[in-house]
Amino acid sequence: MNSHETIRLIEAFDLSQSTRCVTIPNQMKVCQDVGYSEMRLPNFLGHSNLEGEVVPRSEDWRPLLQTGCHPQAQAFLCSLIAPVCLDTFIQPCRSLCVAVRDSCAPVLACQGHPWPQALDCERFPSEEDMCLSPHAKFSHFAKDFPKAACQNCPMVEEAPAMKTVLDAFCQHDFAVTAKLHHRRRFLTGEPAFEVEGRVEFIRQGPLLPYDTHLLLRQWLLINVRCADALVRPGRSQLYVLTGSVLPDGTLAIARLFPWHKKDRDWKSHRKSFRRRGNGSK
Fold first, then answer.
1. Which residues, in sequence order, are bridge partners of residue 239?
2. Does domain 155-275 have CATH number 2.40.50?
3. 214 Cβ partners below 8 Å, 6+ apart?
4. With contact defined as beta carbons under 8 Å apart, do 63 and 185 qualify?
5. Whole-angstrom Cα distance, residue 84 to residue 70?
6. N or C end of the chain: smaller count of CB under 10 Å?
């Protein structure tokens, strides 16, 4: 952040300045469905021009929000980007900032970005003041399910021997097949990586069928440098992925094996594993 932006940020937190209320525009996708329809300008990040600053700068946060790094990340960021238009200013509480920062800063670091100076938690009020506080139910709920996290890039092996594949199936908690797609990135803020079609289980382990597709997508969005090496832009690649869920609840992908359409060996790998009685039903 340059000095000019820092000055503007300080001015934005001067709650005595005059403000105006505007409707949150439809193109401001990151702050749709936040429970209110009007926002105050300037916002708490010092942006006053809706079309020229607020909307385009809000798109900078879309990749982080799509990782699901914290269940209240959207509420926290939108309270700054698009503060609710009430008779009083409602900032996020310091405790909410700390909760979101502790979960989302490692994701930003994995993507090569530091936690922004503009979101220094010390600048926000304590819970003794009127502010947006964290909800305990969200943090409890989030711990009940596996979650994606930053990790060292897993091993990718071309044309592995059957023993290598079967050992990987046995050594890890889960084994799935998934088609990873790298879409060319345009100026829309949309994610560059997707999981196409169904995720099929070879070994389910602790994964949940209805949750695994989103879980793998979030892993790609968080570990973007690993994902870049897996699939070229504009292409798709089918992989067999093996890994485990660690004691802290985070997903760790250990090995990936490319599965090409003409590769018939994979069918025999799966059949051999199921004959051992290790496959999930």
1. 178, 258
2. yes
3. 68
4. no
5. 21
6. C
